[in-house]
Amino acid sequence: MRSEQLTPTNSDMDSDATEASGWRSQLMQKFEISTLMRLLGGGITFVAIVMFLFQRWDDATDLLRYSMIMGETILLTILGLATSIWLKEQKSARVFLGLSLVSTSAVFTILGAMIYSQIQWLPVDAHLPDYARWVADSSQSLFWLLSGSLVILVAQSMFSFSVLARPAARRLTLLMMLNVILLILPTREMWITTLLLLPALMFGHRYLTKLRASMPAMRTTEGVMASLLVMLPLIIMIGRGAYLYAADAFTFTTLALLGYLILRQLALSLKVMIRFRQSLEVLSLLPALLAAFSFTFLLYDIAPETGNWLVVAFGMTLSGFLFDLSKRAISGRNHYFTSIFYSGLIIAVIEIAFWPGLSTALFATLLSGLILLYSYSTKENNLLRFSLLTLIGSVILLVNTLFVSFDMSIWITLALLGMSIIVMAAVVEHYGNQIMTLIQRLKA
């Protein structure tokens, strides 16, 4: 009897084998060898395109280097056409054509650098690395180079978009060329770049949203990829400014805001590829943090005497981004919304730890008390514990500060604080339901 219990039966072994084979078959269905090869080849080619912009060969002229990246763009388009016609394999063809559009943006990035070497609107002082210096021989040669490239790459873009999203090919090509024009304009001044980028981002998002609403082809995975590639020149403008021309806190703040805006608009535009949209939403936290940090340093440059309140400014700025994410995120909205209150408590702790005093103690007490009321009313137990601990510590610091340095101004402040809290209690008592309704609307 005991041996029967310890020895697996044939049916158990068969079920284990079935589960194992089922697991393998599911894995193979998701990751076919051809799919893995396309991912590997496409990734290597994409890295090659990007690395081309960050390398320089001593024995190659700028014209030769430009011819190399232009030739790669044409070759990728030809391979996409050949793969589609001769091998009848559309997936690889779309990969080739998508990469050719990436290369097209790289080509125009180089053209923009060449134009800037001859013509500069409001020149900016910047110590550019060698690989970022592209010099045209003359204005005349630059004119012919730009004209020829536009003719070739407009046709190439039209063909590529006709494969990715045929009904919208002309419109996507036109929109991409409009973005390319902004990319090659000979200006690097950040405020001009911002004035150009903001309306372009808004218009591009609105235009692509209308295309997706009217054309089913734009709602497919290929249509989403086409939409991303159309906006790539604008993304390059932001990256170029951040990497090569960002020199102060204002520039970093502006670029971070633009980066957040691009990720926001891209995420909102995705009706398929839900996991990719979730990744974009999480990735939005990076430019949000950068923007909050940069804005804090910008405030410090303007008013250095407010140093102890800069952490509060950082928290308020970050809370604005978190609130925006809580309103538009496709999942985890409550986490983003609750993070606002956790951020407030962390900032209160930092304030009383590094700048202990009456003002910071009052601030931490009020803030943690309000968050305590919120967490109690919404039954957020973890937030309730954290806010209670913060409130206790803030009150201890407040009482200690009052006993150590008690004067008339402190007495007046204390009296006004007590009366204000009583008034707030009356407001909560009378408008409690309305306040809870407002909180639920904010969370929704």
UniProtKB/TrEMBL annotation:
Residues 1-20 are annotated as: Disordered. Residues 1-12 have a biased composition (Polar residues). The chain crosses the membrane at residues 36-54, 66-87, 99-122, 142-161, 168-185, 191-208, 220-238, 244-263, 283-300, 306-323, 335-354, 360-376, 383-404, 410-431. Keywords: Membrane, Transmembrane, Transmembrane helix. This is DUF2157 domain-containing protein. It comes from Candidatus Thiodiazotropha lotti.
